[in-house]
C-alpha cells in the first residue's frame, strides 16, 4: 500500500481522492514481485466518493451500503395532486412504452415540447410515476436548465458526471480532463455501459437542444427517456409529443377544483373568461384559483376585475406574455409587503432550489420566518415544493421575480448575494467538521458579518448529503459573487468547498473553481490566498494525472507562499510537489522536496505534517529500493500517527511497513504488520481496506508455503471487492488467485484467471498491473507448453517494468524467463537471464529474487557442465531460502544435491 500517500490521504483532506489514476500507471510500486495488491488507496476513496444522492455514503458507519452495491435510484420530484386529465397524451405515451416492451423492441426517446407554463414537466413527472413499476432499476430526473433565467444550461459532461455518480460509479473512475469533448464522450460511453442491461427511466427536463441531451441517452434498449423542452427538438427515431394548453373544459375543471368553491357558486361564464385570460395554461389557472381560495370574501367577478386591472398594468408586454404574467402580478400584489419583499429577494438567488436556511439568508429573516414565507408562497402557487423540504420557482415565476428584483435597489441585490454567500461559508464550516478528519481549514466569515443559522448536520452522511444537494447552488453563488467583484467571498467559498470537491469531484469542476479563486486573490493582492488556491489547483491536477500542470500550479504556490513568508503553506506545497515527482518517477526531486517539507514542519512543530512528509519520504525510499531508509522513515511516521491517535495513519503505515519487510524477506514481521493493520481496519469498519490487508496477508502466506491459507485470504478479499464494486482491487485478487492455482499445479485455471486480470488492468489503464499479470502469465503458459506465448508475455512485461523503473519486478520477470529457457534446453541463455536478475536483486537487496537467481545459476551450471557443478550457487540459494522460511524451495534443491 502506498503508505505515504494513503496515510496523508486519510490524515489530510487533500489526499483522499484521485490516486487511482496513478495506481493504474504505477501498480508495480506495491510489490509486483510478490504480488501484493496495489489498489489499497482506492479503498479509502470508495468510501469517500460515493456521496451523490441517491447514492449513499460508502462508509458503513454512516449507515449506508457499500459503494457500487446494487441500488434502485429514485429521484423523481413529487407527483402533483393538481394534475389534470391529459388522458390522450398519457394513453399515447403509456401505450407506446407497453407495445415496445411487449415486442422486445428498443424504447424510443419521447420528446415532450410546448410553450412555457403549459405543464411539460408536470406531465413528464406524472407519467414517470405511472410507469415506475415498468422500470425497476431506477427513475432519474435531471434539470438541464435549458431555459432557466440567470442560469447557464447544464453542460452534457457535467450532467453525465452527476448521473454516473448517482448510478454508483466511484468518482475516481469518472473520466476527467481538459478536452471537454473527449471527456464528455468518455463519460457518455461509461454511462451507456452502466445502463446497458438496465430497465431505468430518465427524465431530462428543460433541454435547450438535442446536442445538449444526446450524450445523456442510454445505449441499451430497456431504458425510457422522457425529454421536455420549449423547443421542437428534431431527431431521427424520437417520438415527439406536443403538450398544448389545456382544453377550456379541462382548464375550468382545474380552476374549480383548486379554488375550493362549488362550481355552481362561481358562474360558468366568468370562470370561462378567467381561464381564457390566462391562456388556459395550468400555471396561470392554478395561480388564479389559489387567489380565490385564499380570499373567501371574493367572488369570481371580483377576481376577474383584478385580473383585468393587472393586464392593463402590463400593457407594454406582448399578448402571450401578458396572459400569464398578469396572473403573476395579481398574485404578487395580493401578498403582504414583507412577503412581497421576501419573494423579490428570491429573484436574487443565483442557484435553482433552496431550503429555509437559504431563504433566511436571502430575506434577511430568521429560518422560522423564512419557512413560513416559503410555505405560504407554496400555498399561493408562487413556488414549487421539491423533495427534502426544498423549494424552487417555475422558470416563468423566476423570471418574474428577477424582474421585480431588478426594479429595486441594486445594493439590495449585492447585499442579498453577500448574505447568502456568508451563510454558505458558515454552513460549510459545519459540514467540513464531519468530512475533514483533521478539522476544517476554512477561512472565517467576512468581518462584520452577522451570525447566521446553519443546518443541523450530525454525521458525515448528513454533511455529504447536504454538500451534494447544495453543490450547484454554491458554485453558482461563487460565479455571481465573482461577477459582482466580491473577490474575498470567492476566495473563501472556494477554500471551503475544496475538501468536498477533492472527495466527490468531478475534478474538472474543482479546477474551474480554484482557477477562479486564484484570479480573485490576484485582484485582492492576497498572496497567501492565491497560494492556497494554486495549491488546491495542483492537488486536483494531480488527481487528474495532469502532472505537468500540477507541478506548474504547485511551483507557483510555493512562490506565492515565499512572498509572504508562509512556511506552513510552503511546506504543504512542497509535500504535494514531492508526491507528484514520485508519481512521475523523479525520485531524487521527490526526496529533496519531502526532506525540505519535513524540515519546515519540524521548525513549525507541526506533527501531522511531519508524519505525512515522513510517510511520503519512506515511500520514495522504497521506490528507490532503499529499504532500510524506507523502514526508518515509515517507523517514525508510525510513531507520530500513534502519538496523534490517527488510526488510519497508523494502519496505513503498518501496511506499508509490511510491504517493505516482505520485500526484504522478513515475512514474520510483514505478516504481523499486515495483521495489525487488518485489525485496525476491522475496528474502523472499513471493509475495503480489510480486503487489501487480506490480499497482502495472502501474499505472505503464499511465499512462506501456506498455499491454502493464501487461497482463503485472496478469496475473501475477492468476495469483498466484488460486493463493493471495487474493480481494481478485484483484479488484484484474481491475479493472486491465478498465482496460487499455478503453484498448486492447475496451470490452465491459472491462465484463465491471469488473462481475466490482465484484461481488467488494461481496461483500467494499469501498466503495473498489466506487467505483473504478464510475468505470471508467461510462467503459466510455459508450463502448458505455449513457449512463444510465454516469451511474448515476458518481453512485454519487462518492457513495461523497465519503463516504470521497477527493478524488483524486473528481477522477478528475468528469473521467470530464465526458468522457461532452462526447461526448454537453453541453459546458456537461461544463465544470462539469471545473472542479470542476481545483479538487480543484490543491488536493491531483494533476497527472494536473489535466492531464485542463485538457484537458477546453479541449475544452469549443473546442466551445462554436468552434475556436481554449480553446487556453491545452489548452497548459497539454500542459505537465503532458509533465512526466508521458504522450505519447499530448500527441499527441492537438497533433493537435487543428494
TrEMBL record:
It comes from Streptomyces humidus. NCBIfam families: HaaA_phane_TPR. InterPro entries: NB-ARC (IPR002182), P-loop_NTPase (IPR027417), TPR-like_helical_dom_sf (IPR011990), TPR_rpt (IPR019734), WH-like_DNA-bd_sf (IPR036388). Pfam families: NB-ARC (PF00931), TPR_12 (PF13424). This is ATPase. One of its GO terms (molecular function) is ADP binding. Residues 106-257 form the NB-ARC domain. Residues 49-71 are annotated as: Disordered.
Amino acid at each position: 500500500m502506498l503508505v505515504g500517500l494513503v496515510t496523508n490521504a486519510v490524515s489530510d483532506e487533500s489526499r483522499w481522492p484521485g490516486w487511482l489514476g496513478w495506481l493504474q500507471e504505477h501498480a508495480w510500486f506495491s510489490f509486483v514481485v510478490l504480488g501484493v495488491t496495489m489498489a489499497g488507496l482506492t479503498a479509502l476513496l470508495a468510501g469517500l466518493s460515493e456521496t451523490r444522492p441517491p447514492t449513499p455514503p460508502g462508509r458503513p458507519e454512516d449507515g449506508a451500503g457499500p459503494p457500487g452495491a446494487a441500488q434502485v435510484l429514485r429521484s423523481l420530484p413529487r407527483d402533483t395532486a393538481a394534475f389534470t386529465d391529459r388522458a390522450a397524451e398519457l394513453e399515447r405515451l403509456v401505450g407506446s412504452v407497453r407495445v415496445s416492451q411487449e415486442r422486445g423492441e428498443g424504447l424510443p426517446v419521447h420528446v415532450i415540447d410546448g410553450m412555457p407554463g403549459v405543464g411539460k414537466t408536470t406531465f413528464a413527472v406524472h407519467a414517470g410515476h405511472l410507469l415506475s413499476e415498468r422500470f425497476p432499476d431506477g427513475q432519474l430526473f435531471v434539470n438541464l436548465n435549458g431555459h432557466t433565467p440567470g442560469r447557464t444550461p447544464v453542460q452534457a459532461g457535467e450532467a453525465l458526471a452527476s448521473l454516473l455518480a448517482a448510478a454508483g460509479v466511484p468518482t475516481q473512475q469518472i473520466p476527467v480532463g481538459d478536452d471537454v469533448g473527449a471527456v464528455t464522450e468518455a463519460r457518455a460511453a461509461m454511462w451507456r455501459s452502466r445502463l446497458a442491461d438496465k430497465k431505468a427511466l430518465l427524465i431530462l427536463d428543460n433541454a435547450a437542444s438535442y446536442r445538449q441531451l444526446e450524450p445523456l441517452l442510454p445505449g441499451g434498449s430497456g431504458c425510457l427517456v422522457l425529454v421536455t423542452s420549449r423547443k421542437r427538438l428534431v431527431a431521427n427515431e424520437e417520438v415527439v409529443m406536443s403538450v398544448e394548453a389545456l382544453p377550456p373544459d379541462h382548464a375550468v375543471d382545474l380552476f374549480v377544483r383548486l379554488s375550493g368553491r362549488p362550481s355552481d357558486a362561481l358562474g360558468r361564464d366568468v370562470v370561462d373568461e378567467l381561464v381564457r385570460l390566462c391562456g388556459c395554461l395550468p400555471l396561470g389557472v392554478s395561480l388564479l384559483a389559489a387567489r380565490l381560495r385564499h380570499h373567501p370574501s371574493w367572488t369570481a367577478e371580483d377576481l376577474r376585475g383584478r385580473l383585468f386591472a393587472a393586464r392593463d398594468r402590463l400593457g407594454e408586454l406582448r399578448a402571450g406574455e401578458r396572459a400569464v404574467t398578469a396572473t403573476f402580478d395579481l398574485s404578487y400584489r395580493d401578498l403582504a409587503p414583507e412577503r412581497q419583499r421576501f419573494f423579490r429577494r428570491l429573484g436574487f438567488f443565483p442557484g435553482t432550489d433552496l431550503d429555509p436556511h437559504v431563504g433566511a439568508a436571502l430575506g434577511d429573516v430568521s429560518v422560522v420566518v423564512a419557512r413560513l414565507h416559503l410555505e405560504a408562497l407554496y400555498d399561493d402557487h408562487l413556488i414549487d415544493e421539491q423533495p427534502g423540504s426544498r423549494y424552487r420557482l417555475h422558470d416563468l415565476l423566476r423570471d418574474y421575480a428577477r424582474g421585480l428584483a431588478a426594479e429595486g435597489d441594486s445594493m439590495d441585490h449585492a447585499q442579498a448575494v453577500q448574505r447568502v454567500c456568508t451563510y454558505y461559508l458558515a454552513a460549510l464550516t459545519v459540514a467540513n467538521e464531519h468530512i475533514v478528519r483533521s478539522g476544517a481549514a476554512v477561512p472565517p466569515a467576512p468581518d462584520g458579518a452577522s451570525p447566521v443559522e446553519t443546518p443541523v448536520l450530525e454525521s458525515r452522511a448528513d454533511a455529504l448529503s447536504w454538500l451534494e444537494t447544495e453543490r450547484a447552488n454554491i458554485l453558482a453563488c461563487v460565479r455571481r459573487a465573482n461577477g459582482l467583484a466580491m473577490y474575498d467571498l470567492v476566495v473563501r467559498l472556494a477554500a471551503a468547498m475544496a475538501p468536498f470537491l477533492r472527495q466527490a469531484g468531478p475534478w474538472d469542476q474543482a479546477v474551474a473553481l480554484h482557477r477562479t479563486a486564484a484570479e480573485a486573490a490576484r485582484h485582492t493582492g492576497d498572496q497567501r490566498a492565491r497560494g492556497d488556491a494554486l495549491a488546491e489547483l495542483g492537488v486536483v491536477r494531480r488527481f487528474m494525472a495532469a502532472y505537468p500542470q500540477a507541478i506548474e500550479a504547485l511551483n507557483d504556490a510555493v512562490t506565492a507562499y515565499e512572498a509572504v513568508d508562509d512556511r506552513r503553506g510552503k511546506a504543504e506545497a512542497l509535500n504535494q510537489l514531492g508526491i507528484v515527482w514520485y508519481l512521475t518517477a523523479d525520485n531524487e526531486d521527490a526526496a529533496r522536496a519531502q526532506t525540505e517539507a519535513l524540515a519546515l514542519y519540524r521548525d513549525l512543530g507541526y506533527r501531522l505534517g511531519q508524519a505525512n512528509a515522513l510517510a511520503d519520504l519512506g515511500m520514495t525510499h522504497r521506490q528507490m529500493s532503499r529499504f532500510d531508509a524506507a523502514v526508518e522513515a515509515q517507523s517514525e511516521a508510525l510513531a507520530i500517527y500513534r502519538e496523534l491517535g490517527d488510526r488510519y495513519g497508523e494502519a496505513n503505515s503498518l501496511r506499508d511497513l509490511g510491504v517493505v519487510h516482505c520485500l526484504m524477506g522478513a515475512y514474520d514481521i510483514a505478516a504481523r504488520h499486515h495483521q495489525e493493520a487488518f485489525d485496525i481496519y476491522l475496528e474502523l469498519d472499513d471493509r475495503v481496506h480489510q480486503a487489501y490487508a487480506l490480499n497482502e496477508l495472502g501474499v505472505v502466506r503464499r511465499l512462506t508455503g501456506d498455499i491454502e491459507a493464501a487461497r482463503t485470504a485472496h478469496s475473501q478479499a475477492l468476495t469483498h471487492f466484488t460486493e463493493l464494486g471495487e474493480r481494481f482491487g478485484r483484479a488484484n485478487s484474481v491475479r493472486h488467485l491465478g498465482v496460487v492455482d499455478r503453484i498448486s499445479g492447475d496451470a490452465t485455471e491459472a491462465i484463465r484467471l491471469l488473462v481475466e486480470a490482465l484484461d481488467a488492468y488494461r481496461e483500467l489503464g494499469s501498466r503495473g498491473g498489466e506487467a505483473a499479470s504478464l510475468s505470471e502469465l508467461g510462467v503459466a503458459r510455459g508450463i502448458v507448453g505455449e513457449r512463444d506465448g510465454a516469451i511474448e508475455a515476458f518481453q512485454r512485461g519487462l518492457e513495461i517494468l523497465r519503463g516504470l523503473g521497477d527493478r524488483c519486478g524486473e528481477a522477478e520477470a528475468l528469473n521467470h524467463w530464465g526458468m522457461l529457457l532452462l526447461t526448454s534446453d537453453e541453459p546458456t541463455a537461461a544463465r544470462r537471464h539469471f545473472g542479470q536478475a542476481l545483479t538487480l536483486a543484490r543491488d536493491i537487496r531483494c533476497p527472494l529474487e536473489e535466492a531464485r537467481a542463485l538457484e537458477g545459476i546453479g541449475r544452469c551450471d549443473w546442466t551445462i557442465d554436468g552434475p556436481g557443478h554449480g553446487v556453491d550457487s545452489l548452497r548459497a540459494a539454500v542459505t537465503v531460502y532458509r533465512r526466508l522460511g521458504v522450505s519447499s524451495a530448500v527441499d527441492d534443491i537438497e533433493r537435487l544435491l543428494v
